[in-house]
Design the sequence.
Protein backbone atom coordinates (compact mmCIF):
# COMPACT_ATOMS: atom_id res chain seq x y z
CA UNK A 1 0.00 0.00 0.00
CA UNK A 2 1.35 3.42 -0.84
CA UNK A 3 2.02 5.56 2.24
CA UNK A 4 -0.35 8.18 0.80
CA UNK A 5 -3.22 5.85 1.58
CA UNK A 6 -2.46 5.45 5.27
CA UNK A 7 -4.77 8.33 6.15
CA UNK A 8 -7.68 6.95 4.12
CA UNK A 9 -10.90 6.54 6.12
CA UNK A 10 -14.42 5.36 5.31
CA UNK A 11 -17.35 7.76 5.40
CA UNK A 12 -19.06 6.80 8.68
CA UNK A 13 -22.19 8.86 7.95
CA UNK A 14 -22.65 7.14 4.59
CA UNK A 15 -22.13 3.72 6.18
CA UNK A 16 -24.84 4.57 8.70
CA UNK A 17 -27.21 5.66 5.90
CA UNK A 18 -26.66 2.37 4.05
CA UNK A 19 -27.35 0.38 7.22
CA UNK A 20 -30.47 2.43 7.93
CA UNK A 21 -31.76 1.99 4.38
CA UNK A 22 -31.26 -1.78 4.60
CA UNK A 23 -32.97 -1.79 8.02
CA UNK A 24 -36.19 -0.58 6.38
CA UNK A 25 -36.50 -3.82 4.40
CA UNK A 26 -38.11 -6.22 6.82
CA UNK A 27 -38.28 -3.85 9.79
CA UNK A 28 -40.32 -5.06 12.79
CA UNK A 29 -42.44 -2.89 15.08
CA UNK A 30 -40.03 -3.81 17.90
CA UNK A 31 -37.12 -2.06 16.14
CA UNK A 32 -35.54 -5.21 14.72
CA UNK A 33 -35.50 -7.12 11.46
CA UNK A 34 -37.43 -10.05 10.07
CA UNK A 35 -35.74 -10.64 6.72
CA UNK A 36 -35.70 -14.39 6.33
CA UNK A 37 -33.62 -15.92 3.53
CA UNK A 38 -35.35 -15.83 0.12
CA UNK A 39 -38.33 -13.85 1.40
CA UNK A 40 -39.64 -10.84 -0.53
CA UNK A 41 -37.72 -8.58 1.84
CA UNK A 42 -34.54 -10.53 1.12
CA UNK A 43 -35.21 -9.92 -2.59
CA UNK A 44 -35.69 -6.19 -1.97
CA UNK A 45 -32.46 -6.02 0.04
CA UNK A 46 -30.61 -7.86 -2.75
CA UNK A 47 -32.06 -5.53 -5.40
CA UNK A 48 -30.89 -2.52 -3.40
CA UNK A 49 -27.42 -3.98 -2.99
CA UNK A 50 -27.18 -4.77 -6.71
CA UNK A 51 -28.31 -1.23 -7.62
CA UNK A 52 -25.61 0.22 -5.35
CA UNK A 53 -22.98 -2.07 -6.85
CA UNK A 54 -24.05 -1.11 -10.37
CA UNK A 55 -23.81 2.59 -9.46
CA UNK A 56 -20.20 1.88 -8.56
CA UNK A 57 -19.61 0.16 -11.89
CA UNK A 58 -18.80 -3.11 -10.15
CA UNK A 59 -19.18 -6.31 -12.17
CA UNK A 60 -22.11 -8.11 -10.56
CA UNK A 61 -22.48 -11.87 -10.73
CA UNK A 62 -25.08 -14.10 -9.09
CA UNK A 63 -24.31 -17.77 -8.65
CA UNK A 64 -26.65 -20.76 -8.61
CA UNK A 65 -27.03 -20.51 -4.81
CA UNK A 66 -27.98 -16.84 -5.07
CA UNK A 67 -24.67 -15.51 -3.76
CA UNK A 68 -24.09 -12.00 -5.09
CA UNK A 69 -20.55 -10.96 -6.00
CA UNK A 70 -19.61 -7.39 -6.91
CA UNK A 71 -16.12 -7.13 -8.35
CA UNK A 72 -14.06 -3.97 -8.40
CA UNK A 73 -11.33 -4.84 -10.87
CA UNK A 74 -7.70 -4.60 -9.91
CA UNK A 75 -4.79 -3.83 -12.21
CA UNK A 76 -4.11 -7.52 -12.67
CA UNK A 77 -7.41 -9.32 -13.20
CA UNK A 78 -5.63 -12.67 -13.36
CA UNK A 79 -4.51 -12.54 -9.72
CA UNK A 80 -6.79 -14.12 -7.09
CA UNK A 81 -8.96 -11.36 -5.59
CA UNK A 82 -9.56 -10.17 -2.06
CA UNK A 83 -13.07 -11.13 -0.94
CA UNK A 84 -15.08 -9.31 1.71
CA UNK A 85 -18.70 -9.54 2.77
CA UNK A 86 -21.23 -11.33 4.93
CA UNK A 87 -25.00 -11.91 4.66
CA UNK A 88 -28.24 -9.92 4.32
CA UNK A 89 -30.67 -12.49 5.76
CA UNK A 90 -31.68 -12.21 9.42
CA UNK A 91 -33.13 -14.28 12.21
CA UNK A 92 -36.90 -14.16 12.78
CA UNK A 93 -37.37 -10.93 14.76
CA UNK A 94 -33.61 -10.54 14.70
CA UNK A 95 -31.41 -7.48 14.68
CA UNK A 96 -30.27 -4.71 12.34
CA UNK A 97 -26.54 -5.44 12.39
CA UNK A 98 -25.89 -9.19 12.20
CA UNK A 99 -24.58 -9.85 8.70
CA UNK A 100 -25.66 -6.62 7.06
CA UNK A 101 -22.81 -4.72 8.74
CA UNK A 102 -20.31 -6.95 6.92
CA UNK A 103 -22.00 -6.37 3.54
CA UNK A 104 -22.48 -2.62 4.04
CA UNK A 105 -18.94 -2.39 5.45
CA UNK A 106 -17.64 -4.05 2.29
CA UNK A 107 -19.71 -1.67 0.14
CA UNK A 108 -18.31 1.26 2.09
CA UNK A 109 -14.79 -0.02 1.40
CA UNK A 110 -15.52 -0.13 -2.37
CA UNK A 111 -17.08 3.33 -2.26
CA UNK A 112 -14.14 4.74 -0.34
CA UNK A 113 -11.68 3.30 -2.86
CA UNK A 114 -13.75 4.86 -5.66
CA UNK A 115 -14.03 8.26 -3.91
CA UNK A 116 -10.27 8.48 -3.78
CA UNK A 117 -9.57 6.89 -7.16
CA UNK A 118 -7.55 4.16 -5.47
CA UNK A 119 -6.31 1.46 -7.80
CA UNK A 120 -5.46 -1.90 -6.30
CA UNK A 121 -3.28 -4.61 -7.73
CA UNK A 122 -5.84 -7.32 -7.07
CA UNK A 123 -9.56 -7.11 -7.63
CA UNK A 124 -11.69 -6.56 -4.54
CA UNK A 125 -14.94 -8.52 -4.43
CA UNK A 126 -17.89 -7.83 -2.22
CA UNK A 127 -20.04 -10.87 -1.47
CA UNK A 128 -23.50 -11.40 0.01
CA UNK A 129 -23.78 -15.08 0.99
CA UNK A 130 -27.27 -16.61 0.83
CA UNK A 131 -29.00 -18.09 3.88
CA UNK A 132 -26.32 -17.63 6.51
CA UNK A 133 -28.75 -17.79 9.41
CA UNK A 134 -30.26 -21.19 8.67
CA UNK A 135 -33.42 -20.34 10.58
CA UNK A 136 -35.69 -20.65 7.54
CA UNK A 137 -33.69 -23.29 5.68
CA UNK A 138 -31.40 -25.39 7.89
CA UNK A 139 -28.47 -25.52 8.04
CA UNK A 140 -26.77 -22.17 8.51
CA UNK A 141 -24.06 -20.96 6.12
CA UNK A 142 -25.74 -23.04 3.44
CA UNK A 143 -24.46 -21.21 0.36
CA UNK A 144 -20.93 -20.57 1.58
CA UNK A 145 -20.89 -24.28 2.51
CA UNK A 146 -21.75 -25.21 -1.07
CA UNK A 147 -19.26 -22.68 -2.43
CA UNK A 148 -16.51 -24.14 -0.22
CA UNK A 149 -17.36 -27.68 -1.36
CA UNK A 150 -18.53 -28.87 2.06
CA UNK A 151 -22.22 -29.17 1.09
CA UNK A 152 -23.87 -30.48 -2.06
CA UNK A 153 -25.71 -27.99 -4.27
CA UNK A 154 -28.65 -30.28 -5.11
CA UNK A 155 -29.06 -31.22 -1.45
CA UNK A 156 -29.09 -27.50 -0.63
CA UNK A 157 -31.69 -26.74 -3.33
CA UNK A 158 -33.92 -29.49 -1.88
CA UNK A 159 -33.90 -28.10 1.70
CA UNK A 160 -37.40 -27.15 2.81
CA UNK A 161 -38.72 -24.57 5.24
CA UNK A 162 -41.42 -25.19 7.87
CA UNK A 163 -44.13 -24.73 5.23
CA UNK A 164 -42.56 -27.15 2.77
CA UNK A 165 -41.18 -24.52 0.36
CA UNK A 166 -37.98 -25.70 -1.32
CA UNK A 167 -34.85 -23.58 -1.21
CA UNK A 168 -34.18 -23.93 -4.95
CA UNK A 169 -37.76 -22.95 -5.87
CA UNK A 170 -37.75 -19.95 -3.56
CA UNK A 171 -34.41 -18.84 -4.98
CA UNK A 172 -35.92 -18.92 -8.49
CA UNK A 173 -39.12 -17.20 -7.28
CA UNK A 174 -37.21 -14.16 -6.02
CA UNK A 175 -35.14 -14.07 -9.22
CA UNK A 176 -31.79 -14.92 -7.67
CA UNK A 177 -31.06 -18.42 -8.96
CA UNK A 178 -28.10 -17.24 -10.99
CA UNK A 179 -26.14 -19.07 -13.63
CA UNK A 180 -22.58 -18.79 -12.32
CA UNK A 181 -21.39 -22.04 -10.75
CA UNK A 182 -21.38 -22.00 -6.97
CA UNK A 183 -17.91 -23.41 -6.63
CA UNK A 184 -14.78 -22.48 -4.75
CA UNK A 185 -12.16 -20.52 -6.60
CA UNK A 186 -8.85 -19.22 -5.35
CA UNK A 187 -8.76 -15.99 -3.39
CA UNK A 188 -5.82 -14.16 -1.91
CA UNK A 189 -7.53 -13.10 1.32
CA UNK A 190 -11.03 -12.98 2.74
CA UNK A 191 -12.23 -10.64 5.49
CA UNK A 192 -15.63 -10.54 7.17
CA UNK A 193 -16.65 -7.61 9.36
CA UNK A 194 -19.28 -8.59 11.94
CA UNK A 195 -20.76 -7.63 15.27
CA UNK A 196 -19.38 -9.67 18.16
CA UNK A 197 -22.84 -10.91 19.24
CA UNK A 198 -21.56 -11.43 22.79
CA UNK A 199 -20.62 -9.29 25.80
CA UNK A 200 -16.81 -9.38 25.93
CA UNK A 201 -15.78 -6.32 23.93
CA UNK A 202 -18.25 -4.07 25.72
CA UNK A 203 -17.30 -5.44 29.14
CA UNK A 204 -13.63 -4.92 28.50
CA UNK A 205 -14.13 -1.52 26.86
CA UNK A 206 -12.46 -2.63 23.63
CA UNK A 207 -13.40 -1.51 20.10
CA UNK A 208 -12.12 -4.30 17.83
CA UNK A 209 -12.37 -8.04 18.40
CA UNK A 210 -9.85 -10.24 16.63
CA UNK A 211 -11.12 -13.83 16.49
CA UNK A 212 -8.65 -16.63 15.90
CA UNK A 213 -11.42 -18.79 14.45
CA UNK A 214 -14.94 -20.12 14.85
CA UNK A 215 -16.08 -22.94 17.14
CA UNK A 216 -17.57 -26.14 15.73
CA UNK A 217 -21.31 -26.15 15.14
CA UNK A 218 -23.25 -29.41 15.36
CA UNK A 219 -27.00 -29.42 14.64
CA UNK A 220 -29.41 -32.27 15.36
CA UNK A 221 -33.15 -32.84 14.96
CA UNK A 222 -35.01 -35.12 17.36
CA UNK A 223 -38.46 -36.56 16.56
CA UNK A 224 -40.58 -38.22 19.28
CA UNK A 225 -43.63 -40.36 18.75
CA UNK A 226 -45.95 -40.76 21.74
CA UNK A 227 -49.67 -41.52 22.00
CA UNK A 228 -52.18 -38.67 21.62
CA UNK A 229 -55.32 -38.96 23.70
CA UNK A 230 -58.09 -37.10 25.54
CA UNK A 231 -56.56 -35.30 28.54
CA UNK A 232 -59.58 -35.67 30.82
CA UNK A 233 -60.14 -39.36 30.42
CA UNK A 234 -56.62 -40.73 30.01
CA UNK A 235 -55.12 -41.87 33.36
CA UNK A 236 -51.80 -40.29 34.28
CA UNK A 237 -50.24 -43.71 34.59
CA UNK A 238 -49.07 -45.19 31.35
CA UNK A 239 -49.24 -42.06 29.22
CA UNK A 240 -46.76 -41.66 26.37
CA UNK A 241 -46.64 -37.88 26.39
CA UNK A 242 -44.22 -36.67 23.74
CA UNK A 243 -43.91 -33.20 25.26
CA UNK A 244 -43.09 -34.43 28.76
CA UNK A 245 -40.50 -36.73 27.19
CA UNK A 246 -39.04 -33.80 25.23
CA UNK A 247 -38.99 -31.65 28.38
CA UNK A 248 -36.76 -34.15 30.19
CA UNK A 249 -34.48 -34.25 27.16
CA UNK A 250 -34.28 -30.45 27.00
CA UNK A 251 -33.03 -30.44 30.60
CA UNK A 252 -30.40 -33.03 29.66
CA UNK A 253 -29.17 -30.66 26.94
CA UNK A 254 -29.14 -27.79 29.42
CA UNK A 255 -26.99 -29.79 31.86
CA UNK A 256 -24.61 -31.13 29.21
CA UNK A 257 -22.02 -28.29 29.06
CA UNK A 258 -21.50 -28.36 32.83
CA UNK A 259 -20.90 -32.12 32.68
CA UNK A 260 -18.59 -31.99 29.65
CA UNK A 261 -16.61 -28.80 30.47
CA UNK A 262 -14.33 -27.36 27.79
CA UNK A 263 -16.29 -24.15 27.26
CA UNK A 264 -19.05 -26.02 25.42
CA UNK A 265 -22.52 -24.54 24.91
CA UNK A 266 -25.65 -26.55 24.07
CA UNK A 267 -29.12 -25.28 23.25
CA UNK A 268 -32.59 -26.40 22.30
CA UNK A 269 -33.90 -23.45 20.29
CA UNK A 270 -36.96 -24.97 18.60
CA UNK A 271 -39.67 -27.22 19.99
CA UNK A 272 -42.95 -28.09 18.30
CA UNK A 273 -45.61 -30.49 19.47
CA UNK A 274 -48.49 -32.18 17.74
CA UNK A 275 -51.42 -31.60 17.70
CA UNK A 276 -50.59 -28.67 20.03
CA UNK A 277 -54.00 -28.50 21.67
CA UNK A 278 -54.49 -27.89 25.38
CA UNK A 279 -56.85 -30.85 25.77
CA UNK A 280 -54.90 -33.46 23.82
CA UNK A 281 -51.97 -35.37 25.36
CA UNK A 282 -49.16 -34.42 22.94
CA UNK A 283 -48.71 -37.30 20.54
CA UNK A 284 -45.56 -36.09 18.77
CA UNK A 285 -42.75 -33.62 19.31
CA UNK A 286 -39.81 -32.29 17.38
CA UNK A 287 -36.91 -30.30 18.78
CA UNK A 288 -33.49 -29.13 17.69
CA UNK A 289 -30.14 -29.44 19.46
CA UNK A 290 -27.22 -27.09 18.81
CA UNK A 291 -23.84 -28.02 20.31
CA UNK A 292 -20.77 -25.78 19.96
CA UNK A 293 -17.20 -26.02 21.19
CA UNK A 294 -13.66 -25.25 20.10
CA UNK A 295 -13.00 -28.95 20.75
CA UNK A 296 -14.72 -30.97 17.98
CA UNK A 297 -14.13 -34.33 19.68
CA UNK A 298 -15.64 -33.10 22.90
CA UNK A 299 -18.76 -32.00 21.01
CA UNK A 300 -19.00 -35.44 19.37
CA UNK A 301 -18.59 -37.24 22.71
CA UNK A 302 -21.25 -34.96 24.17
CA UNK A 303 -23.68 -36.01 21.44
CA UNK A 304 -22.96 -39.70 22.05
CA UNK A 305 -23.68 -39.22 25.76
CA UNK A 306 -26.80 -37.24 25.00
CA UNK A 307 -28.17 -39.83 22.59
CA UNK A 308 -27.78 -42.58 25.18
CA UNK A 309 -29.72 -40.43 27.68
CA UNK A 310 -32.39 -39.60 25.09
CA UNK A 311 -32.97 -43.28 24.35
CA UNK A 312 -33.30 -44.14 28.03
CA UNK A 313 -35.78 -41.26 28.58
CA UNK A 314 -37.81 -42.22 25.50
CA UNK A 315 -38.00 -45.82 26.65
CA UNK A 316 -39.15 -44.80 30.14
CA UNK A 317 -42.02 -42.84 28.58
CA UNK A 318 -42.87 -45.42 25.93
CA UNK A 319 -42.07 -42.98 23.13
CA UNK A 320 -40.49 -43.76 19.80
CA UNK A 321 -37.43 -41.67 18.96
CA UNK A 322 -35.66 -40.79 15.71
CA UNK A 323 -32.64 -38.53 15.53
CA UNK A 324 -31.13 -36.78 12.52
CA UNK A 325 -27.58 -35.54 12.40
CA UNK A 326 -28.52 -32.46 10.39
CA UNK A 327 -25.24 -30.59 10.05
CA UNK A 328 -21.72 -30.48 11.36
CA UNK A 329 -19.05 -27.96 10.65
CA UNK A 330 -15.76 -28.40 12.43
CA UNK A 331 -14.08 -25.58 14.29
CA UNK A 332 -12.07 -23.58 11.80
CA UNK A 333 -9.03 -21.46 12.50
CA UNK A 334 -8.29 -18.26 10.64
CA UNK A 335 -5.00 -17.54 8.87
CA UNK A 336 -2.53 -16.34 11.54
CA UNK A 337 -0.99 -13.73 9.20
CA UNK A 338 -4.42 -12.18 8.50
CA UNK A 339 -5.43 -12.34 12.16
CA UNK A 340 -2.21 -10.48 12.97
CA UNK A 341 -3.00 -7.97 10.23
CA UNK A 342 -6.42 -7.25 11.75
CA UNK A 343 -4.82 -6.75 15.17
CA UNK A 344 -1.97 -4.57 13.87
CA UNK A 345 -4.30 -2.51 11.67
CA UNK A 346 -6.56 -1.80 14.65
CA UNK A 347 -3.55 -0.69 16.64
CA UNK A 348 -2.22 1.52 13.83
CA UNK A 349 -5.61 3.21 13.49
CA UNK A 350 -5.70 3.85 17.23
CA UNK A 351 -8.36 1.31 18.21
CA UNK A 352 -8.01 -1.05 21.16
CA UNK A 353 -8.30 -4.75 20.31
CA UNK A 354 -8.86 -8.09 21.96
CA UNK A 355 -7.99 -11.61 20.82
CA UNK A 356 -10.94 -13.97 21.08
CA UNK A 357 -12.83 -16.87 19.53
CA UNK A 358 -16.15 -16.71 17.73
CA UNK A 359 -18.96 -18.66 19.34
CA UNK A 360 -21.30 -17.61 16.53
CA UNK A 361 -21.20 -19.28 13.15
CA UNK A 362 -20.04 -17.24 10.17
CA UNK A 363 -19.55 -17.77 6.45
CA UNK A 364 -15.90 -17.01 7.16
CA UNK A 365 -15.70 -20.40 8.85
CA UNK A 366 -16.26 -22.20 5.54
CA UNK A 367 -14.15 -19.64 3.66
CA UNK A 368 -11.25 -20.46 5.97
CA UNK A 369 -11.26 -24.01 4.56
CA UNK A 370 -10.58 -22.59 1.08
CA UNK A 371 -8.07 -19.78 1.63
CA UNK A 372 -6.60 -17.25 4.05
CA UNK A 373 -9.47 -15.73 6.03
CA UNK A 374 -9.99 -13.51 9.07
CA UNK A 375 -12.75 -11.52 10.76
CA UNK A 376 -13.12 -8.11 12.38
CA UNK A 377 -15.54 -7.84 15.32
CA UNK A 378 -17.13 -4.74 16.83
CA UNK A 379 -19.00 -4.57 20.16
CA UNK A 380 -22.61 -5.59 20.66
CA UNK A 381 -24.39 -3.34 23.13
CA UNK A 382 -25.47 -5.38 26.14
CA UNK A 383 -24.03 -8.45 24.39
CA UNK A 384 -27.45 -8.97 22.76
CA UNK A 385 -27.84 -10.46 19.29
CA UNK A 386 -30.38 -12.46 17.24
CA UNK A 387 -33.00 -10.28 18.94
CA UNK A 388 -34.72 -7.03 18.00
CA UNK A 389 -32.73 -4.93 20.48
CA UNK A 390 -29.43 -5.96 18.84
CA UNK A 391 -27.39 -2.76 18.67
CA UNK A 392 -23.89 -1.53 17.86
CA UNK A 393 -22.72 2.08 18.16
CA UNK A 394 -22.28 3.94 14.86
CA UNK A 395 -18.74 4.90 15.81
CA UNK A 396 -17.90 1.25 16.36
CA UNK A 397 -19.40 0.35 12.97
CA UNK A 398 -17.18 3.01 11.42
CA UNK A 399 -14.11 1.78 13.33
CA UNK A 400 -14.72 -1.77 12.12
CA UNK A 401 -15.13 -0.57 8.53
CA UNK A 402 -11.86 1.39 8.77
CA UNK A 403 -10.02 -1.71 9.97
CA UNK A 404 -11.66 -3.67 7.14
CA UNK A 405 -10.65 -1.00 4.61
CA UNK A 406 -6.98 -1.11 5.57
CA UNK A 407 -6.83 -4.90 5.81
CA UNK A 408 -8.41 -5.17 2.34
CA UNK A 409 -6.05 -2.53 0.94
CA UNK A 410 -2.97 -4.25 2.34
CA UNK A 411 -4.00 -7.63 0.95
CA UNK A 412 -5.14 -6.19 -2.38
CA UNK A 413 -1.74 -4.69 -3.03
CA UNK A 414 0.21 -7.82 -2.14
CA UNK A 415 1.97 -9.23 -5.18
CA UNK A 416 1.97 -12.91 -5.99
CA UNK A 417 4.87 -14.69 -4.30
CA UNK A 418 8.00 -14.09 -6.29
CA UNK A 419 6.48 -11.22 -8.28
CA UNK A 420 6.81 -7.52 -7.95
CA UNK A 421 3.71 -5.35 -7.82
CA UNK A 422 2.77 -4.05 -11.27
C1 LIG B 1 -25.42 -18.01 13.17
O1 LIG B 1 -25.82 -16.87 13.25
C2 LIG B 1 -25.21 -18.82 14.35
O2 LIG B 1 -24.27 -18.54 15.11
O3 LIG B 1 -26.00 -19.74 14.56
MN1 LIG C 1 -24.11 -13.22 11.02
MN1 LIG D 1 -26.79 -14.64 12.96
Sequence:
Amino acid sequence: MSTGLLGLRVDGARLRRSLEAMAELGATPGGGMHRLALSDDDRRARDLLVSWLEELGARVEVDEMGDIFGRRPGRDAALPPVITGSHLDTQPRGGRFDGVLGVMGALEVLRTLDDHGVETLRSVELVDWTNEEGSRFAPAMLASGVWAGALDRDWAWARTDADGFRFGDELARIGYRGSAPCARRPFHACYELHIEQGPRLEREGVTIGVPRGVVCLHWYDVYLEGVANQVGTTPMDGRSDALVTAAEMVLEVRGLPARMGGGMVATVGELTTHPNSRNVVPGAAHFTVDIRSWDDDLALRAWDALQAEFRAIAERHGCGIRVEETWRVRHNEFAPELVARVRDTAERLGYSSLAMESGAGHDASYLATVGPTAMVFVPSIGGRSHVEVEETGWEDCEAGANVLLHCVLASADEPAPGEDAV
